[in-house]
Design a protein that fits this description.
The chain is α+β, with helices and mostly antiparallel strands. Helices cover about 15% and strands about 30% of the residues. It has helices at about 20-25, 55-65; strands at about 5-10, 30-35, 45-55, 70, 75, 80, 100, 110. A hairpin with a 2-residue loop joins β4 and β5 (about 75). It holds the Pfam family RRM_1. This is RRM domain-containing protein. Keywords: RNA-binding.
């Protein structure tokens, strides 16, 4: 199941893998979470990015409207729709990235 993904920018590199899943379940069924931990372009930055995949567009739009500009683990995140034309939520073949799926619970979003 591919679903519809949102791109989440300015995610802490120290984020627990379950945090995005728990935070975004408020807006709909989270199918998958991808966190780019070892991104070469962001090696010297404190933040990275993630993709969160939902079961449908309505849930993804709820996440964009509800989570954009909120704090997650102390970082102000930006959330937009993933417009990857290939139809997949994100690429699992990118070298040096870590992929997390179905992980335990954590803190979630804060205002």
């Amino acid at each position: 199941m591919r679903g519809v993904a949102v791109f989440v920018n300015f995610v802490s590199k120290r984020i627990h893998p379950s945090t995005p899943k728990d935070a975004f379940e408020t807006y709909g069924k989270v199918i998958d979470v991808f966190i780019a931990i070892n991104n070469i372009k962001r090696r010297d930055m404190r933040s990275t990015f993630a993709f969160v995949s939902f079961s449908n567009l309505k849930e993804a739009m709820n996440a964009i409207n509800g989570a954009n500009n909120r704090k997650i683990d102390g970082f102000d995140i930006k959330v937009i729709l993933d417009t990857n034309v290939s139809g997949s939520a994100y690429h699992h073949t990118v070298k040096d990235w870590v992929i997390y799926q179905e992980v335990p619970k954590s803190k979630g979003l804060q205002k």
